[in-house]
Amino acid sequence: MRDHTFKRRVVLRSLLALAAGPALAAEQTVAPKFNPDGSEAHWSGNSIICHVDKRSENFMALLDIHRSLMRSGMLHRIAVLPPASYHMTIFNGISYPARQTEFPTDLPRDADEAFCNEWFLAKLKNFDLGCRLPFRMRALPVEMQTNLYNILFEPVDEAESRKIRNLRDRLAQVLNYRLPDHDSFRFHVTLNYFYSAMTRDEERRFFKLHQQLAADFIRRAPVLELQNPEYVYFDGMYEFRTQLLLQNKDV
């Protein structure tokens, strides 16, 4: 019921915003994860993600989006992520630049990054994934694809929703780490970030392009299948280094 309510709210918000103009409908945020010149900023942390399978039609469709973004004429505004980085976050870990507001309850806020990374790693080595793979996600309808930097997904049905929500609850418990958006987290694959604010005309054109690219993706690869979640370290948004695969212990 919660997922259906969320979808109704997003559709209503999108329709109202579109009535006011594309620039108001799009969600555009200049990211601190990139410098004002478009170069990658140092933004370190850890996370639990599923990389998109490079052998899948999903990846091929995302690769075509990457090519379109590189030819979009918007590289003075957006930082396009490399295809090797494409992933869906299962559970957000520690983002060290945000440690003053969000941090595990059993760790001192001045603990260094290496210690925190190893602390999580030690806990996750004994963690039982406890669910059947793959995770099956579907892209939201194109009218709900209003984030100009990603493609939004949801579980394909209630059973998949319970599976992934239960996993997230168990991870929050074992890691003593529950973020404010834990229950409302929006699953996504990030394509690009903004490092400079667009003009209204640029945003209108980019919104149209994003809608076209999202529609093409949905037509080609509406269902995204993901295998074992990976515990990763990162220094920025270009590379996510796998440290551990979460697995079912009874296999």
From TrEMBL:
Q: Where are the bilayer-spanning segments?
A: none
Q: Which residues form the DUF1868 domain?
A: 33-146
Which key words tag this protein in UniProt? Answer: Signal
Superkingdom = Bacteria
Q: Which Pfam families match?
A: 2H-phosphodiest
* Leader sequence residues: 1-25
The family database entries (InterPro entries) matched by this protein are listed as: 2H-PEstase_DUF1868, Cyclic_Pdiesterase
UniProt name for this protein: DUF1868 domain-containing protein
Query: Which organism is the protein's source?
Result: Telluria antibiotica
